[in-house]
Structure formats: structure tokens, C-alpha cells
Amino acid sequence: MFTSFGDIVSKVLGFSTETKKSDVGAYFKTVQGTIQETKDKLNKIVADMKREGNPNASATETAVKTLIDNTLDKIIEGAKTASEAIGDASDPIGNVGATNVAGASGTGVNNLVKGIKSIIDVVLGKEGSAEAGTDKKADGLTSRTNNGSGEAGKLFDAANAGDADNAKKAAADASKAVGAITGADILKAMVKDGSEAATNAAKANAKDGTIAGAITLRAMAKGGKFAGPSADAVEYAPEVKGAAISAVTKALDTLTIAIRKTIDAGLKTVKETMKINANDTPISPDQSAPKATTN
């Protein structure tokens, strides 16, 4: 019933410098379609049980409705909203401006956040923290300052990321932030800060989680772009792209696993209600509805 999620995992792990924002949109669309298929199959099983007069039909219908209302529908709607927010954006997730090109927040950020929040509210629980990591920048490990040169906040600057030396330091700080936290931390930071993520990432004492969340949103958002340096810096763009790809991969890999675990737990409850072995072969509406067992 739930085999296609393996394909999603492989696609997430395959993200690269060639990955487009629309590929992230396609990921969410696949989540939407996969969960919708699961919902449809569950409804068909209930219908088949009722048609065959299965004595467990009523209890199963209640369990299925609970799973659909409390979990599946929220994931479906969230994935749909996130997918539509990104749309067919053809620019890469590691979209870095050329020399003296400002950063751009992109469009649809609020809806992207709204969609992701709808999903993680039901699959992540208490896992992850938006305040994860430290406020120490990569260069010198001193606390980050307000819009400080050579810090990750400069990736979102309205002018540029600084001269060649400072831009490279900013890129290294971004990589440090992403590497210091988990995918769950990133997801929590994304939905906590939303459209204010980039602003918060440039504030004094910004935590790694805040920065990584902002990087992930900028990487996913349609039209989102990281600021370019004020002078040519060959190493800058590849480092920023690497940080963006790593952040998106961490976030979506974690999201995929969390969705899978949540759905598996829900299906186990449904199986128990149907009075079949919860460890048996996955439910499939292509098979006959399970025969009732009584105690």
C-alpha cells in the first residue's frame, strides 16, 4: 500500500547542483499523490468490508476516518499547498547571484511555509528545535553580529554578500550552520520564522538553526536567490550551493522518514481494528477484504 515512498527517498538523496526548485515542487506533489492513493485504498477497503457484511467494518471505518481526518488529509493539503507555492520554477535550488547581485526572497514563501507546517505538525511531534546549534560563526567561533560581514546572514543581503574574502567567510559560516543541526531542526526553524527567516538570520546571535532554516526556504522558494559577492570570488558560489543542497536534502529526507513512520503507525492501528495481523503483508485493496476473526 505504501511502496512508492522509497522512490521519494531516492530522489531526495539525489539532489545536486542541477536540481531545480521545480524538482522540490515535484517532491511535494508526489507526497500528495502517494498519500491520496493511500487514502483512496483505505476507503475502498472499508467499502468492500461493508459490502461483504464484515462484522469489523464499522470499527474499521471509524479507525480509517480518524487516520484520514487527523493525518492523511493534513499531509495531502500541506503537500498540495507547498507544491503549488513552488510551481514550475526552473532556477536551481542553489541559485546564487553573480557579482554585485542582491539576494531575493522569492515568491510564495508564506504558502510554502504554510504547507510544510501542515505536514510537520502531524509527523514531527517534539522532534527538532528551531533554536538548535550555537550563535558562533565559522570564522573565529565568536558570536554572530547584526548584519555582520563574513557571516551567513550576508547570503540574504539586499546589496551583496561582501568582498571576496568576507563572502567566502559568509559561505563557510552557512555550511557550518547547516552541518551543525538536523533535518528536524531545519524544518522547525522554517515554519517558526517563515517570511522573516532571512531577516532573522542576519540578526545578532542568530543560531545555526535559524540560518539553516532561512537557507532552506531561500533554496526552495520560487525566485529565491542568494546574494552574490561584491568582487569576484570563485570559491563562493560552489560553497553556497553546497550548503543549500545539503540543507534541502536534510530537511526533505527527514520529512519523508517522518511521514513514513506516521503513516505506518496509522496503518498498524487500522489493521488491528480489522482483526488482522499488523505484521502481515501490507493492506491492498486489490485483494479481497480480510475475513473477520472473532475472539
From TrEMBL:
Lineage top rank: taxon: Bacteria
Stored Pfam families: Lipoprotein_2 (PF00921)
A cellular component term, taken from the record's GO annotations: cell outer membrane
Keywords: Cell outer membrane, Lipoprotein, Membrane, Palmitate, Plasmid, Signal
UniProt xrefs under InterPro entries: Borrelia_lipo
Membrane-related topology note: Lipid-anchor
Compartment(s) where it occurs, according to its Swiss-Prot or TrEMBL record: Cell outer membrane
Function: The Vlp and Vsp proteins are antigenically distinct proteins, only one vlp or vsp gene is transcriptionally active at any one time. Switching between these genes is a mechanism of host immune response evasion.
Protein name per its UniProtKB record: Variable large protein
Species assigned in the record: Borrelia hermsii YBT
